[in-house]
Every structure is written in C-alpha cells, then in structure tokens.
Design brief:
alpha+beta, two-stranded antiparallel ribbon, 19 helices, binds protoporphyrin IX containing FE
C-alpha cells in the first residue's frame, strides 16, 4: 500500500525529502554525539519514515524490536519521531519519576481537528484543571461506591433482558455490551436527563461507536501530511468530523441547555450528574472572576465526549475478551461459578461487595485484562522538552509510546504470560489476591486512566452476573474463537458468536 502511495507523490518531492532525511540519519548516527537518539529498527525512508516496516497488526513486531533493541526504540512514523518505551522500570521512570516531562499529549492533526485543544486531549494547566474537576465530580457522584453500583446494576438488568431476547440463539455480544456500557456513561453524565427509552439518545450514543471506528482510518493523516491533499474523503476525516459535530450539538449541548434550565428553576445544590457538577464549577469560577479559566462550556462538551470515547470501547472490548477466554476455558468458568454458589448462592445477583469473597472471580477479571492487553501502547504521550533519558536524547515533541505489552505479556514478570491462568493473581491458599505493581492495564503516572474504579466495577459485575446466570456455548459445530486480535484504537477480538443458555434450563 505504501509503495502505491509513493508513486502518487512527485519525484522532486521525494528527492528533496530524501536529502533532508539523509542529513537527519547522518546526524542521528553521528558517533561523536554524546547522546544519540535511541536505536531504530532500520532505515527511515523519505516521507514514510519506518511506516513501510509495519505490518497490519504490528504488535508482535514491536515486541521483537523491543527484545532486540529495547528498552528504548526510536522510529519515524512518517514525519514524526516516536520513541517506544519497554519494560516496567523504564515506563515507571518516565511516567512517575519524570512525570513533569512525560505527561503531555502530542498535538496531532486529527486530534486538533476534532478536539480543538479541549478536554483531555490537551496538556498543561488546562488538562490539569479538567482532570482535577472531573475526578472531584466523579467522586462526588460516588465513583466506585454503592451509589454508582446502583446505576451499573440497573443497566445489567436491562442487559440480561436483552440477552434473553435471543432465547439461547448465537449472537455476537459486542453490540449489546457497547450499548450497555455507553448507557452507564449516559446515566453518569446526564443523570435524570437520560431516559433509556429515548430513541434519539440511543441513536447518538451508537454514533460514538461509529466515530471510534472511523477515527482509526484517519490516524495515518497524522503521520503522512501529504495524504491530506488527496481529493475526496478517502480516510473518512470529514465524516468523522460531521459525526463529532452531530454528537456535540444534538446530544451533549442539547442536554447541557436542558440542565442549565433545570438548575435555574430548582436551584440544585447537590450533584445528581456530571453535567450539573461541571456547570456548578463553571459558575464558581465565574463568581471568583477567573475569566480565563479553562473550566468553561467548551471544555465541558469536550470532556463529556472524552468520557464516552474512553469509557465505552475499552470496557466493552474487555468484556468481549473475557467471554472469549471463558468459553475457551470452561474449567475457569466452572470454578468462578462454584465460588459463586458457595459465597453468593443463586437467589440474588452478585454485588460489588461480594468481591471480598469472590477472589477467584476477581483474579479472573485481572487475568483477562492482563492477557488481552487491549491498549498495547496506552495513549500516546509526548516529551514537553528535550531530555537525556537513559543516555539517549529524546527531543521535545517526540511521541512517546509506552509498550504495555512489554509489561503485561513479559515472560520475566509472569513466567508463562501466554497461558490464561487466573491463579497467578492468588496466593498459595487461593484466598487472597496478590497485587502486582506490574499489573498496568490502566497505565501509570499522572495520565493514568481516571475511569479505573468504574471500569473495575463494571467488569466484575457484568462478568460475575453472566457467569451466575448462563452457560456460554459455541454454536453447533463452530470452532473455538481465535485469540488473534484486530489492531486499532483498542485491540479487539475478531468477531465471534456465543449462545447464552440460562443455567436454570439445563
Ligand atoms: C477496561 C476499561 C478501561 C481501560 C483498559 C482503560 C485504559 C486507559 C488507558 C491505558 C489510558 C491512557 C493512560 C495514559 O495515557 O497514560 C486511559 C485514559 C483515560 N481513561 Fe480509561 N480505560 C478504561 C475505562 C475507562 C472508563 C470507564 C472511563 C470513564 C469513565 C475512562 C476514562 C479515561 C480518561 C478520561 C482518560 C484520559 C486521562 C487523561 O488524559 O488524563 N476509562 N484509560
């Protein structure tokens, strides 16, 4: 594909770039330079950089490069220099010890077009303010507590009803789980403004899914600027922007205006939802006469969109991986079920408090997150200034890619990383969880996932409830679903179908 692209580009441009790249390479390989760039996997071509080396699913390739060149690897993604960090110590040193330098997000063409430098796509004081306010409102809303659990449990009831409409027939659980976890974000963000039977809201939340898939196609525009000149909308950028504007105007801003009216009418003091909490913060900042405060409506809209984007795809992908591993490992499913029978019984649904007894279940969720490693490079960071890190130069603006695969799938850390073995997270008695700091599916440092508490609650409750209620069966004659993944914003399982047979029917 890249060779075809090359042929579209004028010869003069190629030669000019070749010259520039040659100079860069010579500079980079200058042995007298006391601090060179980290080693790279091969020659960087003009325009393409190292993109020509990448396979469609480059995970294994990056792992091999890490073993050969790590713990730091530099490569050009088109015209952008990127450094991949390998191993727990390296990533911790960068994101925790040097957090001041490694906590920014890179400015990319697509994110700028979409985010207009708002919400969580930003860096510096604006991002810090969004993170602080968001965390404090989510805590007020009871993130990780029984208040939040009520919302999750309500949605699980609807999820089970939806599964039952298939009457044991095979279906791909992806869409249902996406729908349910985005309803949970809706309930969190819009509170009483969100009605489950509102078809308009359902339409816009499903558009979020479309937008995320479209976004994947646009990523190449970040690295090969020349492609932006091609006529038409080959990479779907215009379509992505249109959907983003639709979601922003017809869903988020509309709900925002409704909420503002409610607040004026009722003079609401406590915080029933995220919108109300953020509006209250905006007013507090205005009252304090902080005119330039980043706590404003534009950022509110962006933060809400970010919560949807960050909180739906990831959680639903993990649930789909969990179901896939559970059907491949019936002995694990059986043990989770036996534990459920012993500690919870079958007369009531499991609660989040039950995880104190359901240790094997909790270990199973952790093992799914470890082995599926759904965001192998986390989200990209950038260096906010030049730094010499482990004797290599990392220039300001370099894209930083932490290889979470190099931790979650490391033989040195886990011994047998490719075996699905929840017991690795339990002590010898099998009664207590072993917490490992190398368990990093939410990454580490100042940028680590701020939805971690909600995600853990959702994963535990959705999966334990499904195990309590159903046998997971493959359709008659279907082979075991493959462990191959589809590389994208998060790494998803290839589509598969399952039958959910109520245990009571067997
Ligand atoms: C299994 C589910 C989830 C996984 C595996 C996951 C993983 C991650 C990862 C790897 C990052 C990037 C951290 C970094 O850049 O260093 C991240 C960021 C983020 N996540 Fe999650 N996440 C999940 C669920 C959620 C949920 C449910 C929410 C919201 C309620 C959420 C909100 C966010 C936000 C807002 C950020 C950006 C933080 C920032 O830039 O400061 N995530 N997540």
């Amino acid at each position: 594909m890249f060779l075809e692209l090359l042929s579209c580009i004028g010869l003069t441009t190629v030669l000019m770039c070749l010259l520039v790249r040659l100079v860069t390479i010579l500079q980079g390989s200058n042995k007298t330079n006391p601090h060179p760039l980290p080693p790279s996997p091969g020659i960087a071509l003009p325009i393409l950089g190292h993109l020509y080396l990448l396979e469609t699913n480059p995970r294994r390739q990056f792992t091999l490069w890490g073993q050969r060149h790590g713990p730091l690897l530099s490569l050009y993604l088109g015209n952008r220099l990127a450094v991949v960090l390998y191993g727990f110590d390296t990533i911790k040193e960068a994101f925790v010890k040097h957090a001041d330098i490694f906590s920014d997000r890179p400015k990319t063409f697509v994110m700028q077009a979409l985010g207009k430098d708002k919400g969580f796509v930003t860096s510096g004081p604006s991002w810090r303010a969004q993170r602080k306010v968001t965390i404090s409102i989510l805590q007020e809303l009871g993130l990780g507590t029984s208040v939040m659990e009520e919302k999750v449990q309500e949605e699980i009831s609807r999820f089970l009803d939806n599964i039952d409409t298939f009457h044991g027939q095979a279906f791909n659980p992806r869409q249902l789980t996406m729908h349910s976890v985005s309803n949970i974000i809706c309930a969190l963000v819009f509170g009483s403004g969100f009605r489950h039977d509102d078809p308009e809201i359902a339409r816009y939340t499903s558009l979020f899914g479309d937008q995320l898939s479209l976004l994947e196609g646009t990523v190449i525009l970040n690295f090969l600027p020349i492609l932006r000149m091609l006529p038409g909308d080959l990479f779907g950028l215009q379509k992505t922007l249109r959907i983003a504007a639709q979601i922003e105007n017809a869903l988020i801003k509309k709900q925002l205006e409704l909420r503002k009216k409610d607040i004026e009418a009722e003079d609401i003091k406590d915080v029933p939802d995220f919108l109300t909490g953020y509006i209250r913060e905006i007013r507090a900042h205005k009252a304090a006469d902080v005119n330039t405060s980043p706590i404003n409506e534009e950022n509110l809209v962006a933060v809400v969109a970010n919560l949807f984007a960050a909180g739906t795809e990831t959680t639903s992908t993990t649930i789909c991986w969990a179901l896939l591993y559970l059907v491949r490992h019936p002995e694990v499913t059986d043990r989770c079920f036996q534990e459920m029978v012993e500690h919870v019984g079958l007369d009531r649904r499991p609660t989040y408090k039950d995880r104190q007894q359901l240790k094997y279940m909790e270990a199973t969720v952790m093992e799914v997150q470890r082995i599926s490693s759904i965001t192998p490079f986390s989200l990209h960071h950038t260096a906010s200034r030049d730094i010499v890190f482990r004797d290599y130069l990392i220039p300001k603006g370099t894209i930083i890619m932490p290889s979470l695969d190099s931790i979650l799938l490391s033989s040195e850390i886990w011994g047998d990383p490719l075996n699905f073995r929840p017991g690795r997270f339990l002590d010898a008695t099998g009664q207590s969880l072993v917490k490992r700091e190398e368990f990093v599916p939410f990454c580490i440092g100042r940028r680590s996932c701020l939805g971690e508490a909600l995600a853990k609650m959702e994963l535990f409750l959705f999966l334990s409830t499904m195990i309590q209620k159903y046998h997971f069966r493959l359709p008659e004659g279907a082979p075991l679903p493959t462990l191959e993944d589809r590389f994208g914003l998060s790494c998803t399982p290839l589509p598969y179908k399952l039958c959910f047979i109520p245990r009571a029917h067997i």
